[in-house]
What does this fold into?
Amino acid sequence: MLKERLLTALIAGSAALAGLWFLDTAGVAVLLGAVTLLAAFEWSALVRRGWAAGLAFTALTALLGAASLVLPLTVVLGAALAWWVWAAGEVFWLRDRTSPLWRHMPVQWLAGVLVLVPAWRGCLVLKAQDPAHPSLLIWLLVMVWTADSAAYFAGRALGRRRLAPLVSPGKTVEGAIAGLAGAAAVGGAGAWWLGLPGLGWAGGVALGVAVAAASVVGDLLESKAKRMAAVKDSGRWLPGHGGFLDRIDAMTAAVPVFVWTMRYLGVR
It folds into this structure.
């Protein structure tokens, strides 16, 4: 299982990095758009809607994704950040208890849109800032991937205390701390290497911690969705990893936090 997981991560990660680096902004929009729409269909399945509703929600996500391109970025990011504050309450306060999110289709659909569309828009903003060398987008990906990998392996080796046992029993406090530390290291190193004005290495460390913390909320929210649906994975597309939503759950929360911080600090 671990070997399969690592092989899939290597292939998918390499393909993602190559696509983000070599494609132009329009190509990246199509590539990430395809992943987003597949994840949208998986989200609909997690909230227990049938094929027809899944196709309808996927079409709605595509429509609102296109609409997000003409909306002010501050509006898109503001809606996303407000949603993720709510989502943190879902996983750490309500835990496995139901809320209107899991009972009413309009709320389910709104939640799915806020999970997926701002992350897609944010990635395009980062790519468009420097289409030939999307260093900020690659830096963000490496931070999230490092946090995820560090949490996974440290949790397996050292994990004792459960982070959110009623939502995701496999995640541990020790793993989360390792993930924060890993992302902090990448954040500090990346800020120093890129020489970004307004963000020194210490700011990069803090940014890495914020990105990793957001990624944990994104991961746990999807874990709660899977628990409510009584399924292990959102799909079966990626051997050892499940579905596309399983792979981008951390990014859905991390991207708005990262892009908002870059805009707030005036970095590029």
About this structure: The longest strand covers residues 168-172.
